[in-house]
Specification:
This protein is α/β, with parallel strands linked by helices and 215 residues long. Helix content is 34%, strand content 24%. Strands 1, 2, 3, 4, 5, 6, 7 and 8 form an eight-stranded mixed β-sheet that branches.
Length: 215
């Protein structure tokens, strides 16, 4: 399969898990060089640093790990062990070549994660909660695999956050005692070298702890 230059419009237009798999299979080989580097992508750095700043620790599940951009930053900051989860087998193959992950888990979060409850002391996700991708309905699946008190750091595109009702979802989880210490700092998704219509896009990094009351 020939590589295809990553196109944000194509990613933002995704409608189904099958479309996700097809697009990211095409992107996998060139994703780091043709997207992350050329577009001065910074979100994975912000997410990893926010997790560490909130005193997150391993074992960590990197959700929507892709080619391992966020995992590499986490590993460089001394966090581990780290497992990678992604819907794309091709992306996971690229991630595992970086020798930063303990295990790779191919999974569609809409169907849950095939790992035992309470497996992780931390969960991170960078770039997965965005247009055409996952909404707040998958948050329970993340909380299920996180230990009580586990730290989570999930980047969420700001427009996606509003459109899919993340604020209400987090409020319900807080009210039910399923999460605590929620903070939503804003960050720029791209750096100063970025060009194009998405160069000023903003994300929220949802930082919270898994609460005492379990799902």
């Amino acid at each position: 399969m020939s590589a295809k230059t990553p196109d944000l419009h194509a990613a933002y237009s995704l409608k189904s898990p099958e479309e996700n798999k097809r697009l990211y299979a095409e992107w996998a080989g060139d994703y780091d060089d043709s997207f992350a580097a050329l577009e001065d992508y910074q979100l994975h750095i912000h997410t990893a640093r926010a997790f560490v700043g909130a005193k997150g620790q391993g074992p960590v599940l990197d959700v929507g790990a892709g080619t391992g951009l966020c995992g590499a930053i986490l590993a460089g900051l001394g966090v581990g062990p780290i497992d990678a989860a992604d819907i794309s087998a091709e992306m996971l193959q690229q991630a595992m070549r970086k020798d930063i992950y303990r295990d790779a888990i191919e999974a569609d979060l809409n169907q849950g994660l095939p790992v035992p409850r309470d497996s992780y002391a931390g969960v991170v996700s960078s770039g997965t909660f965005t247009h055409g991708h996952l909404g707040p309905e998958v948050l329970p699946a993340l909380l299920r695999v996180a230990r009580p008190g586990a730290q989570l750091a999930l980047s969420i595109n700001a427009r996606h956050f509003e459109a899919l009702g993340f604020a209400a979802a987090f409020q319900h989880l807080e009210n039910d005692g399923k999460i605590s210490n929620l903070a939503l700092p804003q960050v720029q998704i791209y750096g100063e070298l970025a060009v194009g219509p998405n160069k000023d896009d903003i994300a929220l990094i949802a930082l919270f702890e898994n609460g005492r009351n379990r799902l």
